[in-house]
Amino acid sequence: MKDKLTDFLDYLRIEKGLSLNTINSYCFDLTQFFTMFSKDQFSEKDIIIFLTDLKKRNYSLASIHRKISVIKSYLVYLNVEENKGYFSPSFFLMPKREKKLPKAVSVNDLDILRNAPRIKKDYFFLRDRAIFELFYACGLRVSELTSVLVNQFCERTEIIRILGKGEKERIIPINNFAKKAILDYCREERTCVLAKAKKSTNYLFINAQGQGLTRQGIFYIIKKYIKREGLAKTISPHSLRHSFATHLLEGGADLRIVQELLGHSDISTTQIYTSLSKKRIKEIYNKAHPRG
Fold it and tell me: Which terminus, N or C, of the chain has the lesser number of Cβ atoms within 10 Å?
């Protein structure tokens, strides 16, 4: 089964063009499934046993839903790509997914977070401020932010090129706050750190050793400031991304535009961010409708 899994992961990487993070997630879910059965073949009954076990261990519906999708993809691969003649994955009954929305961070709390990094108090205060500004200005995923290269930011046109899931590129305009924060950081801290470390890198955001920041590094930075400023512990890269989308929609932005900015391939994915208040919906209606 190990060889089949390796072939499947190569297929996801080469043929489907999925990101490393997504491939690792597929690998984890399938390995978890395979460890329950010490055999090369598995049946519908085995999958039902696996899903029942997940429910007993209090896995969330979202996690179970993801694991079902991964197993289905693997079965389709075996049936189509390798012509193995496995049973059809159509027997799966997908559980109804929970619609849990991360709470949008208020504009006031975002201002506190953006201004939290301060000179003399924080070694990388310009970098950290630029990170917060870019998160909120562009609604990036944490994996996208850690992957941003210096040449993806264009000062003259005030845009940033982002490589999202499946290596799909999207162009996002950048506001003056984020632009200034990035320029200040690059001209001062970033240049000094690389010179001191005697290193060269294309990654925009680096650590004290001159290496690109990791996802864990970003989480640590956010946790540090929200704790110090007494902000909600639920603030995360995803809640900043959600706030970006929510505040745009509350400002009257078109859903399709927000979809493009977020890099969603399906508009239904973007719709989970439309948690507008009834009051705001009425305001937009009155403004937009001829007889409003």
Answer: C
292 within domain boundaries: no
Domain edge (last residue) among 62, 91, 120: 91
CA distance readout (Å), 182 to 133, 175, 215, 216, 275:
9, 11, 19, 21, 30
Say yes or no to pLDDT of 70 above 70. yes
Residue 238 falls in the annotated catalytic set: yes
Q: Are 117 and 245 in a shared domain?
A: yes
Is residue 273 annotated as a catalytic residue, yes or no?
A: yes
Question: 119-178, pLDDT tens digit by residue?
Answer: 888 889 999 999 999 999 999 999 999 999 999 999 998 999 998 887 789 999 999 999
Question: Is the same domain home to 143 and 174?
Answer: yes
pTM of the model: 0.65
Domain that holds residue 20: 2-91
The burial of 47, by beta-carbon neighbours within 10 Å (0-12 exposed, 13-18 middle, 19 or more buried), is given as buried
Coil, strand or helix at 206 = strand
CATH number, domain containing residue 25: 1.10.150.130
Output the six-digit token pair for 260: 């493009």
Measured between alpha carbons, how far is 164 from 172 in angstroms, rounded to an integer?
Answer: 12
Q: Tell me if 290 is assigned to some domain.
A: no
Our answer to whether residue 225 is catalytic in this structure is no
CATH number for position 122? 1.10.443.10
> Quick one: 206 and 272 in the same domain?
yes
DSSP 289: S
Active site residue 165: yes
Catalytic residue among 180, 227, 238, 282: 238
Number of domains observed in the structure of the chain: 2
Catalytic residue flag (residue 190): no
Q: Which residue of the set 129, 179, 190, 241 is catalytic?
A: 241
Catalytic position from the list 65, 66, 103, 165? 165
